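step: validate -> pass
step: tokenize input -> pass
step: predict -> running
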Amino acid sequence: MARIMLEVESEYQGIVEAVSELLDKLRQRREEAKTKPSIDYSQVEREVAQGVACIERSAHATVLSALDLDEPEVMVGGRRYRRVHRCSGSYYTMAGPVNLLRTLYRPAGMRNAATVDTISLRAGVVGDGWLPETAATMAWECQRAPSREAEGASDRWQRLPYSRCAFERVTHLVGEQYGQKREEVERTLVEQMSIPDAAHAISVSLDRVSIPMEEPRDEPKRGPEKEPERSPKRKAKKRYVQRVFRMAYAATVTLHDATGESLLTLRYGRMPQGDIDGLCTALCDDVQTLLRRCPSLLVVLLCDGAKELWNRLGAEFTEASLGTKVYRLVDLWHLLEKLGCAAKVLYGDEEGSAQLCKWRLQLLNDNAAVEQILQVLRDGKKESVRVGDSRPVHEAITYLENHRDDMRYHAARSLGLPVGSGNVEATCKSLFEVRLKRPGCRWKTDSGGHIVDLRALALSDRYPQALAHALAPLRKHVTVPATLNYVGVFLTLGCNLNCVYCINDPEQAGARKRLFPLNSLEMPPERWVEALSRLPVRDDLPITLQGGEPTLYWRGRGLGAVLAGLDHRFDLLTNLTLKPAIFAERLGGQQAKLRRSAPYPTIRVSYHAKEMERLWKGRGFETLFEHCEGL
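step: predict -> pass
step: emit ->
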């Protein structure tokens, strides 16, 4: 049997253990597959997925732990933060939560300010520990379907193992963050988007669609009878709300080829109480950006006959604002809908359909078609005929008279312009009706706005790029302050002297040897290397190794191991009681890391008169001086 040996650093021990557990499970299942006539392979799939998820969590833990800084002070965006506490915290990945030890900081001088940790700041987490890609994926699921369905789907996929409440909370956090950066992000996306080589024209459309909104209603008046007793959990005052349909706005900016066919569509939406004027301004900004990048593009406004829509677009899209002619067209299919009803009144159902086909061809191929059709409708003398509550002929005549200047479809086709607003009609359905008009739904402006923003990005095929830009500001640059000029590391509290004034003896009673015997309470060298590797490597910020007596650390083998495992420069505080040859041996060949340009010696020797006189039998100072000369 072939064996593969892989050497990894101690920091990756968790990954190795997770891989080992998965291999053990695979060996067991492989043996079963060889001996049994059949096996439950769905169970194998689940176990493999769980094993891989464990490896993934361990990998995240390894990288995230390296982002933690345990310093007295750090600088975050130019502001000083001071260490408050060190505790464990959870970070949420695609494979599940990861629990890590991290240091909390608070802005200097602000006792009650919220605490932060460097892992969250440097990784750009969303909310309380949600990693950016995890949060973006959860928001994607909730823009596509309700949180209950997102939770069910994640359970089947064995990914994102979180509750529906977590899905909702994270989605709104992501939506809020995007909403704060929306104008900036949309501008960046349009500047970076690829314009198809066949692009010939830009159409801009705006439409409305009703959606159910939650609004407060008056509390019903009660009679003199006693109000029914409410359970303790429901003592809060009851909210009285009503489900009311209001008009939301959908918009599109579409690139067309020379035949009027759509090449690429950007979709936008606003809730009923949203910033509709801001939406129109954003549409105009995007079109201006596209024209700046490709000045040959033609611009056409395409809407139905609603006056409000034309007024809103007309205020923004002018020849003066764009620097090019702006064409206007009423959607052909809205017109044909009006003419179809009128044709049935004039000609009956069967002949009416044939007549409508003739009018359609006439509109597409004759600039005078509108006047000719108007004349036919007037000559029919059936303007007063009612069908239900409507007067189809009268309504068709009115529609033609009000918009005749915006119905030059033959001229538009000769310019290669589109004549239908199908893109915005489809956006009303896909952006709002499919997601926001599900049975029982009702929305508030903010929460609905988050879903609309995220869904518009998804339908425009620019969700990943937009979220990358929107979440990027959450990442903060964290540094150790430049004023930090001393890092002291107590490798061990053990020592071969027993001075009564030792700082490690709290009672100052000469009891240090009893309190801290040699080789006890010492952290392994690899753990010191892991911890100190988080510090920045700076020539002017050496790590001062001290104790106790650092040359005695880990039975004399630890000092060299710590020096060898790091790229930093070091200072050493020692009593130099060891003979020079033994002292040099315990440096492990890493003497170069104790040499640097400094205004003071990098190896500093302390003289302890009473203990050294006892140790060297009255020749304490002389022996210490000889050891220094021997180095």
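step: describe -> The CA atoms of residues 217 and 241 lie 5 Å apart.
step: cleanup -> pass
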